[in-house]
Every structure is written in C-alpha cells, then in structure tokens.
Amino acid sequence: MAPPVEDWVRAFTEASDNDPEIRAHGRYFTCAYLLDMQEHRFAVWMVAGKVVAVAVDPGPLDVGYQFLVRASADTWRNFGTEVPPPMYQGIWAATFRRDMTLEGNVLVLMQNLRCFTRQIELLRTVGVPV
C-alpha cells in the first residue's frame, strides 16, 4: 500500500538530505526535475545536494524543470521494492526494457547522474506514493 503523498514527500526529502553518498557527491547537484509516476507527479528542486522543494501534482505550466523521468505506476512500484526485480534496478534497465522514458535536457540528468541515481535507489527504503 502506498504511503500518503505528504508523508512520502517528507520521507524522500529527509532520506535524500541525510544520505551520506549524496552529501559526499552532491555539492553541485543543483537542478529541477519531474518524476511522473502516472498517478502522481513530483517536481523536485535540488540545490547543492539538498531538496529545497517538492511540488505535488503540478500543472503543465505551473513549474519549470530541466528533465523528467516518466513511467507507469507499476514500474515505480517495482523500483520501490527492497530488492527490485530484474530490469527495475535502475533507470537504464527500465528505459531499455520497460516503459520508462527520459525527457527534456538529458545533459542536466547526465551531469547529476550519480546523485539522481542514488535518489532513485532511496525509493527502496522510502517506497513510492503510487
């Protein structure tokens, strides 16, 4: 069962801000991105490795972001399991074999790939809200 959206935002923010790996590598992790989980969308603003804001279900013109990661709720649920099944362990596997897409300024994603990947890995502990 998915956690309430507000609880998930709080847990995701705390997990990301307190993660030793993001703290070590996140000095330049400054960007805005959107996680489209089909049932909910989350715009996340990062500054120097810290989550400064998360907008829940923004409208198409409400917020700006540099890239987005879109997948079905089922794909995100599989990402959020403690031990993800094959092809759900990372964004590349899910992009090649599942329904995940990467859109927008992919250069910004690549520049922040290690920290962003770590945030996706944190879904295994905080779950997903879909």
Automatic annotation (TrEMBL):
InterPro entries: SCP2_sterol-bd_dom_sf. Gene3D superfamilies: SCP2 sterol-binding domain. It comes from Planosporangium thailandense. This is SCP2 domain-containing protein.
